[in-house]
Amino acid sequence: MVLGTDNGRFTVAVRPVDGAVLLTLAGELDHDTAAPLRDALEEAAAGGGRLLVDMAGLEFCDSTGLNALLHSRITVQEAGGTLELAGLTGPVARMFRITGADGVFPVHTDVARALEQSSG
Asked: Beta-carbon neighbour count of residue 91 at 10 Å?
């Protein structure tokens, strides 16, 4: 399933992979584009399990995107699952580092490495 914004600035693709639900983000995640991510996370989080968010294609993320991820992390944990991030680079990695959010989520270099490792 692929969800996107009307203006084409952000997409999220959701698919099962190796016992996890993989959400692949691309573009700019901000107040105007966050709805598809919130919808995808809400649906994926309902089942618990392992959610892996591939952020390698994300060029920008503001506090709205971060808050959507933080909220979903709590929902997933309450259902007995995990929400993990992969592929943080550039300004997105910097924002997560500055806010300390990179210490809240399990963070992997990339999706391949995340899938090699246990969800902990």
From this structure: 11
